[in-house]
Amino acid sequence: MKIRQIEIFRSVMAGGSTIAAATALGLSQSAVSRQLTQLEEELGFELFERRKGRLLPRPEAFALMDEVGELTSLVARLKRYTEDLRAGTVGQRFLKVAVPHSFIATLMPEVIETYLSERRDASVELIGGHYDAIEQMVLARVADIGFVGLPPRDKGFDAREIVRSESVCIMPSGHPLAAKATLTPRDLSGHGIIMLGRQRPARLRFERLLRRAGVFPIVRIEVHSVEATCGLVARGLGVAVVPELIAGLYRHLPIEQRPFSPCIHGAYGIVTLKGAPLSRSAEAFIEILKNRLEAQGKA
Hints:
The protein is an alpha/beta fold and 299 residues long.
């Protein structure tokens, strides 16, 4: 007994004929008749009496109909659910996402709004941290996916690049460095510098550039988020070199930014546990975040 045969039987009972069933199911009348005959052969008894081209349900047909009602409803729900799985609207109802603090109140509200609007039964846990902390969250399964600068420090990840960024020097509004169109390491000599991300690749590249230029930075503040850096710069506490992608989120603050050359930043992306496949809903979340970041880069 096949599910399709049960669907056809139920449709014949509801419509009263093979023609009505064929119309309802989008099949030919001959296909309906053939499936119905095969069902009766498998059951070993007739469900209908054929009389002058009409189908008259036997008592056995009514008895069987009472039992298949719930089955066909279950099959219909299962079909709808598998369609949702294919579309990525269900399947992982609770997604744990780790991102930099800079994203929490800026990018993520829009990203999560878009994600939830397309997934009626989904929920999200949003966790903020610096890149090293995000990597540890993913390794410890506290987060399913994490946004970090690439390459990640740990090798136990599958990493996917989703966006790239140039470098900019940010400074308080009206700062003397704002008079230059592009800044280099030599331009920072004599200025207080806020250092970001100790031991991160971008920080190490920045320090090498300063040494080669003969610049000995005046460092009184070290931080681990671009959000904090922008806030400190806005208070006149120094200048800093940060990724343009994230600095653009804080244009509302009293700071200015100028391109910094050579670039010390580069690729950013998503890390997940190595060899652990992602659900369709997680893939959809990453795509929404990628699109939002690309739009931010063009703003």
